[in-house]
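Annotators were shown the component list below and the corresponding predicted structure, then asked to write short factual statements about the assembly.
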Amino acid sequence: MLIKLTGGTVYDPASGIDGQQQDIYIQDGRIVNKPVEDIQVDREYDLKGKTVMAGAIDMHTHIGGGKVNIARTLMPEGHRADPVARTHSTRSGCGHATPSTFVTGYRYAEMGYTTGFEPAVLPTNARQAHMEMADIPILDKGGYIMLGSDDYLLRMMAAKKDQKAINDYVAWTIHAAKGIGVKVVNAGGISAFKFNQRRLDLDEQNSHYGVTPRAILKTLATAVKELGIAHPLHVHGCNLGVPGNMNTTLDTIQGIGGLPLHLTHIQFHSYGTEGDFKFSSGAAQIAETINKNKNITVDVGQIMFGQTVTASGDSMIQFINHKHASPNKWVTMDIECDAGCGIVPFKYKDQNFVNALQWAIGLETFLLVDDPWRISLTTDHPNGAPFTSYPHLIRLLMDRSFRNEVLSTIHPEAQKMTTLASINREYSLQEIAIMTRAGAARLIGLKDRGGLGSGNWGDVTVYTDNADRQLMFEKPAYVFKDGELVVKDGKIVHTKWGTTHVVKPDFDVSVEKDLRKYFDRFLTMKLDNFKISDDEITEDGRGSLTVHPTKGEAV
Amino acid sequence: MAEITEVPSPFCGIGTDDLTIQVDGVLLKVTKNGCTVNTPAFEQGITDTRPRVDGKEVNLGAAVAKAAALLKAANQPVIGGCATDVSGMRALLALADRIGAVVDNMNFTGARRNFLVLQDSGWINTTLTEVKNRCDLLLVVGVDIEAFAPRFFEHYLWNEASMFLDDTGKREVIYLGQAPSGNASTSPNGKKAQVFECPLSALPEVAAVLRALVKGNPIREALAGGVAVADLQAIADKLKAAKYSVVTWAAGALAYSQAELTVQTLSEMVKDLNSQNTRSSGLTLGGKEGDQTANQVCGWTTGYPARMRFSSGFPEYDPYLNDANFLLDNGEADAFVWVQAFNAGAVPPVTAVPTIVVGRSGMTFEKEPDVFIPVGTPGIDHAGHAYRMDNVVAIRLKKLRDSGLPTTAQVLSAIEQAL
Ligand SMILES: [Zn+2]
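Structure shown to annotators:
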């Protein structure tokens, strides 16, 4: 099967192509160079005047796993307001803040996204995360394995085990839970909450283990680097949402000693304590520090006004946040001496000073970080807003007058506390393509996604140019996944199953000796029953497993 | 003959995975770590291997075709039971979506007492490994745990080693309402549980007074629901003094009207404790016969727990009106599918509407269904996944023998294909 996409204007930062008119050929799922003359083109699409990008990649979106399903169950009123009917090619479901799995796949694809990564896969809940993601059609997916409050790691650190032993444990866990990266959430804080600590600063000790968040970050960042995992340690920092936490964030960056770190939903970690309300924007200082420290990447976690539900591994902070629950219902859980979670519905209001300033802080961050390769476009779905708000967010970034128009409607005190109105920057299409495609792929280590050069998989999104960027990005003309046309005029026309991206870093198998003892003594599952096998991912006929090499390994 | 070790059980709800099972052809024998719930469930023999239509044995294709014809002719089909593994539920929901069916898990009327609370106010809950390592006080409300899951105490309270307790034998166990039927709750060093009995119907009052005492509100009466307020005060004090108390209940056991209000009182009490500078968590007992599995898979597929319908072309949830028994009794259903792959004893309610049973081999019916298709049991005849009671851990079920029985998923997908 040879497909030709003819005459579109191509934005492919991965190959350095910035708005050039070019034909793209897709053969049997992959992009190929222009074939030798006499090969028959099976299907040609005339894309003259259209904008062509690779399929977009959401590198941080809560789309699968226990806390997402609790969030779904918690909010039937949200689903009632957004029912999605069955069609001849799609399943029924529901939408809004935490859509059903099928609708998650459809709505992402309908916006031109072809890949999403669940950032908080607890090892003990990884089966569920993968089973849910297996029910998300079209998208490729993957997960970051959450460590840092698991008692095994904390015991190792308290016992001063060497880095090599920790690396083996981290690698073993990635294998067992089938991840592509490692995430840490409120390092050690989820564990500390179980010991009744209610806050944990960067240099504060977990009362049981005597281990600090800073030490955990350093240990895990080192493990990720030494194991050759492409995606840097994915960090949900300490003190999320706490006024003044910008200092924690700056300290985290300064203290990591140049190790690669990805600071996620940085917006929630960029707060100062100035002004009448003792709540201010730290975005300028944070962005300046990011600009200077090339080892740091971020995603924003932009908030949007409206109802959502926050689902986080950070049980400590979510317990505090329950005071803001709207509607007033919430869940926190301690989980398996492994992790925790907290689910709190939120209604972000433009006439609430804090919410309004949070909105501005996110946008300031986008606009003040210079290098689009080091910043990803996220709302921390659904925590800042549902992923369906991305086209609106893109318009805010690309259209200064629109941005200022919205700015003029938010809480007046918040308008005074942000520099947003004075920032002239407008994102270009190429910069959007970097943030949502090439940069995200590079950041996670996907070599053949996020680009349109030959050898890439045929994940392609075609937009109809429109000065209103929200309309343009809401409704692509065509979306191809692995070379198959899945969306036409913003509607699903065909579905398929994506692959699950993982890494399998090397480890010393003797790591299982101590682990087995630990499982038998303290956990409630046998070690061999804990490990997820490859066939668990593929046995229902829902996709495949794609193993990415770690650095040092031959491709 | 083969011996398979570390076998996980989908039957007891607490996710025990240390069984040793001897396999001789299709005969199973639990040789290690069995219990009164798991052993008979694993050892039950295979009787039916062939499907039946109108009581006559037919091949699978004919049974599937008949089932599809019955469903095609129906205006409002209802799928009950919903007792199967994750793949089975996936296929069940695909079929239900296609035919516009009502989906109702057989344990939902019990589970509803929890869901109403979750969806109204939420809770703070924990999981079994946390109980095993942290719980220093277990308050058991209205349930006889050892009858529910015989090895609960052995596994999760009287474990030899715990990460955060010096001596697990010093844990305190307090029963409120229902007294235990045996001595499983007595610690290995002989420490007995405290028991404060009251009738089930008094639990709302007892729970409310206990919560009031935890909050420090004065109670002027000497008795609440037959329990001395002084005793409840002592429980409240212990809850406040504990480092990590766990309050457990089984929604199914709270079989009285509006028991969700009791669940809510307990859950809010747990929240109160966490706002008084200590930690406390709830723990809901359940997870039998795929009930958590049904709610989980239905949750991610539709957004709602497993008492919902597709009859409008999209998912709609009503925890009362979509009760399969209610719909059958009211004449609102015109075809009924019963899916029960775990328990041959759990047969469908007798109904006049055309009935299709996709069930564990060995079911005996008061009224022969129009179609009966025996299927394999997840964790015995085929691999699969099931959720444990704490709703976080999905256990990987093993295939133990080659029975040739199809899986629930295969049968339901075949019916969907045949429509
Ligand atoms: Zn997140």
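Statements collected:
1. Chain A has one domain: 53-492.
2. The domain at 53-492 of chain A is CATH 3.20.20 (TIM Barrel).
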